[in-house]
Design a protein that fits this description.
The protein is of the alpha/beta class. It has 2 domains: 227 residues, Isopropylmalate Dehydrogenase (3-Layer(aba) Sandwich), CATH 3.40.718; 118 residues, Rossmann fold (3-Layer(aba) Sandwich), CATH 3.40.50.2300. 38% of the residues lie in helices and 17% in strands. Strands 2-1-3-12-11-4-5-10-8-9 form a 10-stranded mixed sheet, sandwiched between helices. A two-stranded antiparallel sheet has the order 6-7. Strand 11 and strand 12 form a beta hairpin. The chain is globular, with a radius of gyration of 20 Å.
Length: 367
């Protein structure tokens, strides 16, 4: 099993390490979860693009999600065999999975993984493409606390006709997501953190969260903080999203899940939103969208978020040059508009768009 070391949240994957006395370089491994619905076909194209760029990461495909659970049963969507592969890997890529909305169904693959490995920072960059948004230019990032809040899954019945869900907010959880947001801001030269709360109503839970944002601001002079209530924030994202450019949007689990999805509506498609789930010793990468079972097997959906999430993963694992060319190639393919899917104004198949990105990436690597 690889040695786990406590590097900076954003630099860990760049450092090669080994168990042997002479510190010989070890190959990095990534668990690659096929997922449900459109998941396997998106994983196919992600691997195609990475292999076109000659990645040296060992990509180990495995199963998790509701489809395999319906066949095999169990208390979790993640089989023991997959869990073992994840434990022995340096990172994980997750294709979209389905979570059945039933009290008797297991906790989602994403939530289970975030909580097991303490992947407390769910990061979703929001950036427009010139062809898709000629009149709106957006560039900000969403930081979501990903291990607690309402997603802690603490629910119970109080009678046959009522139930209660607990919103768990801790100082530890609030501190580490606030610190990671400020770390990102410093690394990328951003001067503002937008904290999203409902502190006038949720005075205790959001009070803890906001106090940690204030503390982090005091420890990071030169970075301004501003607070928006969740209801007003959604209105502002519709009315004037450009006011948030060059900022980090920061919030608790459910609030930022909503805000990042709302923000995705401004950049052409949820199919363009890629994400990382980062902790101190592990990371999981995934497209922000769901499994879209109605499109399963149709070779139709937008592969952008899936491909860019995979590119981000190999950067984390020590291949930043591959990430850079894939991002550049994707930008060029989308802005040219010749090989893009239906949701962003084209008629290309998933595989055709992915192939165009793979070929352009490989060409850029040679330059």
């Amino acid at each position: 099993m690889p040695i786990k070391k406590n590097f900076s949240l954003f630099d860990k994957g760049r450092i090669k390490y080994a168990q042997s006395a002479n510190l010989a370089e070890m190959a990095k491994k990534a668990a690659v979860i096929n997922g449900d619905g459109i998941g396997p076909e998106l994983v196919d194209v992600v691997i195609h693009v990475l292999e076109a760029c000659n990645t040296q990461i060992e990509l180990i495909r495995c199963e998790a999600g509701s489809e395999q659970w319906k066949k095999n049963g169990g208390e979790t969507y993640i089989p023991d065999s997959t869990s073992k592969i994840m434990d022995e890997s340096d990172a994980c890529y997750k294709g979209p999975t389905t979570t059945i909305p039933s009290p008797d169904a297991p906790r989602s693959v994403a939530v289970s993984t975030r909580q097991k490995y303490e992947l407390y920072a769910n990061v979703r960059p929001i950036k427009t493409y010139d062809r898709l948004s000629p009149n709106t230019k957006l560039d900000f990032v969403c930081f979501r606390e990903a291990t607690e809040g309402l997603y802690a899954g603490i629910e119970f019945d109080t009678s046959e006709d009522s139930a209660i869900a607990i919103r768990k907010i801790t100082r530890k959880g609030s501190k580490r997501i606030a610190d990671s947001a400020f770390e990102w801001a410093k690394k990328y030269g951003l001067k503002k953190i937008i904290a999203i709360t409902k502190r006038n109503i949720l005075k205790r839970t959001d009070g803890i969260f906001w106090s940690e944002v204030e503390r982090a601001a005091q420890e990071n002079p030169g970075i301004e903080i501003e607070e928006y209530y969740i209801d007003n924030m959604t209105q502002q994202l519709v009315k004037n999203p450009e006011r948030f450019n060059n900022s980090v949007l920061l919030s608790t689990n459910l609030f930022m899940d909503i805000i990042s999805e709302c923000a995705s509506g401004n950049i052409g498609s949820i199919g363009n939103v890629y994400s990382a789930n980062l902790g101190d010793n592990y990371a999981m990468f995934e497209p922000a969208h769901g499994s879209a079972p109605k499109y399963k097997g149709m070779d139709k959906v937008n592969p952008t978020a899936a491909i860019l999430s995979g590119a981000w993963m190999v950067e984390y694992l020590g291949e930043p040059e591959i990430k850079d060319v894939i991002f550049k190639a994707t930008d060029e393919v989308i802005n040219e508009g010749k090989f893009v899917t239906y949701d962003i104004g084209g008629n290309a198949k998933t595989s055709e768009m992915a192939d165009a990105i793979a070929k352009r990436s490989a060409e850029l690597l040679k330059k």
